[in-house]
Amino acid sequence: MGVHDGKTYLITGVLTKRSIATSVARLVHQDGATILATSFDRARATTLRTLHSVGLEIPVLNYDASSPTGAEELADQVMQHTDVLDGALFAIAGAPKEALNSDLSRATANEVAETLTTSALALSSLAYALSPQLARASESASLVALTFSPHRVWPGYGWMGIAKGTLESIVKHLAVELGPLGIRVNQVDAGPLRTAAARQITSLARAADHFSAIAPLGWDAQDAQPVAEACAMLLSPLLRATTGSTIVVDGGAHLVGGS
Ligand SMILES: NC(=O)c1ccc[n+]([C@@H]2O[C@H](COP(=O)([O-])OP(=O)(O)OC[C@H]3O[C@@H](n4cnc5c(N)ncnc54)[C@H](O)[C@@H]3O)[C@@H](O)[C@H]2O)c1
Questions:
Q1: CA 118 to ligand 1 center in whole angstroms
Q2: Nearest 10 degrees: CA dihedral of 200, 12, 146, 82?
Q3: 63 CB less than 6 Å from ligand 1?
Q4: Any bridge partners for residue 184, and if so which?
């Protein structure tokens, strides 16, 4: 019996075959998990096509992370499928292009708010909205978020870098708040990968070459599998006493001095 056998996970963030969430969904599904996916208005057709192309015929619920009611509406839809969730993956990032600039002053307050809401604050809304279903898991339930190098400033990552710093703080606070309900909250700090989200950000393309050059274990920006494996491990009960933590999956690049 695999560690994901009989588990039910909510997986956000499936867009293309390259999406980190697509690799996670395939991995845990192969290992016996039931999956509910999410998508939102303009992305929905692409999400459906991607899931079909990788052989995942699973429900796709509506979830717009930028909407103030998105998480509550999602929780209602989840309840139509299951009243128990063993975990959820928050693999969402979104920002208007003006917010992805070294010059922070170029983004308006609304653009900043959209970036922070979609890419960070939504994790908190999602966690609280799903907490009744997560709290019913037989073993500790797990929320997993994705981040990129939150302790460094990457020129051009702009307000998304600030969103990732905020996300880390939210992960820690939620871990403390939701721990007594048996809910773990962690994040995976992934090295740069060539996904749709990354294409918008030129500094991530440069970072991909940099990581490949310096990572002691090597780094392949085309291969999301090592990141997906870490997410799957965190979703599973194997790390049942780990919460509020960041697992870095970058081939060791973050360790190398002078980089
Ligand atoms: N690609 C990288 O280099 C890299 C590195 C580290 C961390 N990450 C993080 O991994 C996560 C997944 O990104 P990815 O690289 O797989 O790219 P991706 O483009 O495949 O996934 C991003 C997802 O966010 C979704 N999204 C955007 N706005 C949304 C909204 N308002 N409501 C709901 N969903 C919305 C998109 O539909 C898409 O599914 C993101 O948090 C990203 O910051 C990516």
A1: 10
A2: 170
A3: yes
A4: 142
Query: Residue 48 is which amino acid?
Result: L
The tally of domains found in the chain comes to: 1
Amino acid at 6: G
- Pick the residue whose CA is nearest to atom 36 on ligand 1: 13
User: At 139, is the secondary structure helix, strand, or coil?
Assistant: coil
Distance between CA 221 and CA 226 in Å, rounded? 11
Q: Is the pLDDT confidence value at 2 over 90? A: no
Burial 174-190 (b: 16+ CB within 10 A, else e): bbeebeeebbbbbbbbb
CA 194 to CA 18: how far, in whole Å? 7
Q: Model confidence over 195-246: pLDDT tens digits? A: 988 887 887 888 899 999 999 999 999 999 999 999 999 999 999 999 999 9
Q: What is the pTM of this model?
A: 0.98
CATH number at residue 39: 3.40.50.720
Q: In the numeric block, which tokens belong to residue 243?
A: 């919460």
d(CA 241, CA 159): 32
256 within a domain of the structure (yes/no): no
